[in-house]
Amino acid sequence: MRERQISNSFSASELAGYDQELSGIVKESRNGSSRTFTSDRSIFDHYERTLNPVSDTQWREDIRFTLYIPAISWLLAIGVKHQFGTFHKRNRYPFWHPPTQLDAETLRTVWALIGMSFLNSYYATLLGQLLTFIASEFRNTTAAQGIVLGVSRLDILPAMVLLILADRIGRKKIILFSTAAGAIFSALGSIVPNIYFLAADQIAAKACATASILLISIISSEKVPSNARAWSLAALVIGSASGAGVAAAMLPLAGLSRGSWRILFAVSILALFAIKPFSRHIKESQRFEVLTHEPRQEPRIARSRKNRNALILLSVSTFLLNVFYIPASQFRNEFLSHDRGFSAGAIGIFTIVTAAPGGIGLALSGRLSETRGRRFVTAAALVLGTGGLMLGFLSHGIWIWVWALLGSIIAPGVIPALGVYLTELFPTRYRGTANGIIGIWARLGSIAGVLAVGFLGSTLYNQVGTPLALMGLGPLLLAILVVVRFPETKGLQLETINPEDSAFHED
Asked: In what order do the strands lie in the sheet with 36-38?
């Protein structure tokens, strides 16, 4: 592990300012009466800051640290050097760090979970990305595409089995198994003889991906401090978006020949080689280890009015959300190619240009959710993001790009702000099961959305743009529900939100 060093020179008149314990990304403690500072809790594996006189009028600050995050240690080191190189920034949290202290092991866990999110998201999004090319080879109508997309949403049923099992034997085991199995099923999609065999294959592949992604968010929320849950979820979504972005970047391959879309499914098998390196840094949370050994008083998620209300609230919310956002994603390429005449290459460029800035909304939402509150960020992202995307589906020419870009920047902010409630509002013992039940309602919303868009696009409108815009009414209704009914959980310990978990006491 490489030791890195930062040196800053300052005048003797500035000594009082430098001779203070820092409390930003590193919480320092002074070694006795010396001018040496260390830290027991930070993203560094080792940290030491010393102040040494150079002359009667000059001093030097030497900061030595080791930082190990697989593949990106160098990048974080650049951020650290920039942070400590500017005096007035060193007690602040940079944009890439949550607004609270984080230890090195936790940061490595989050990074590994981001990697697993990347893998699962790649093959989970392939069907939606490639459906228009698949339908072209197999000569299927828009209505048939809607049916296939709707049927593929049944993946939540086998995923539910995996989520219930995870509540009993552990999240890590199911994440690793599901990620590997999902990669295999996805690769098998490259040899299917027709669209219906592909639909069956994708139920299995997407079930594994769905279970993995939900469990990844649960284990992340349980591992990080209370003021970092939305931040960690935003980081995971950026990983997922990157996986989907790779699939989008490869779209031009799907347009090379009649069956070249199969290449994108085939490369899913490469995910198997990345699972083991990531698995070394994923550990079960202490909450799970402690609380799953407590005696079970009642083996049902709806054991209290609080849990029942939370389950109903989030089930309705995800239904309304997915009525629009899933069809918007699944039929976007059909809208661009059929309704607006985009080529395969143009679709790939459009997807990259409009999707890449979504990381801005994710990063801002993750930070603002921890500082301003979940409800405000969720409602704002729903109204502004959904509105922009709706206008994009009703526009032509340059305005398609303008509104899609605006919506794609703001709309992703819904994910960390709203998604963190799926962990926060349920006790540890039932989080997987609760997420599975909510996932069923999310899938019902997506099925209703894709079937409605497919039917309306084939009959009444003969295009999918207007039906997609109509589905945007769902998230707009959700914005009202968030303001009226959702609790504010910013900064609260999971055990405060869920008294059932009071047997666990965080260090």
From this structure: 3-11, 58-66, 46-53, 36-38, 29-30
Q: What pLDDT, in 10s, does the model give residues 171-192?
A: 899 999 999 999 999 999 999 8
Q: Could you tell me if 238 and 220 are in contact, meaning their C-beta atoms sit under 8 angstroms apart?
A: no
* Phi, psi for residue 372 in degrees, rounded to 5: -105, -20
Helices (H) and strands (E) in the chain, counts: 25, 5
Report d(CA 221, CA 217) in Å as an integer: 6
Task: Report the sign of the C-alpha dihedral through residues 112, 116, 117, 119, in that order.
Answer: positive
Mean pLDDT (the chain, rounded): 86
Residue range 23-45, pLDDT digits in tens: 888 989 998 878 999 988 889 99
DSSP string, 190-207: GG-SSHHHHHHHHHHHHH
**pLDDT, mean of residues 305-332:** 89
At 208 the three-state DSSP class reads: helix
Q: Helix, strand or coil for residue 357?
A: coil
Find out whether 321 and 474 touch, Cβ atoms under 8 Å: yes
Distances (CA, A) of 202 to 75, 155, 450: 36, 8, 16
* Model pLDDT for residues 388-407, shown as the tens digit of each residue: 999 988 888 888 889 988 98
- 94 touches 25 (CB < 8 A): yes
d(CA 75, CA 228): 21
Nearest Cα neighbor of 311 from 168, 427, 140 is: 427
Q: What is the DSSP string of 94-107?
A: -TTS-SS---HHHH
Grouping H, G, I as helix, E, B as strand and the rest as coil, residue 50 is strand
Label the pairing between strands 46-53 and 3-11. unpaired
pLDDT of res. 481? 94
Which pLDDT score is estimated for 362? 80
Q: How far is CA 251 from the centre of its chain?
A: 22
**Closest to 442 measured CA to CA, from 484, 403, 414:** 414
Least Cα distance to 201 among 269, 148, 243, 140 occurs for 148
Tell me the residue type at 333: N
φ and ψ at residue 62, rounded to 5 degrees: -115, 125
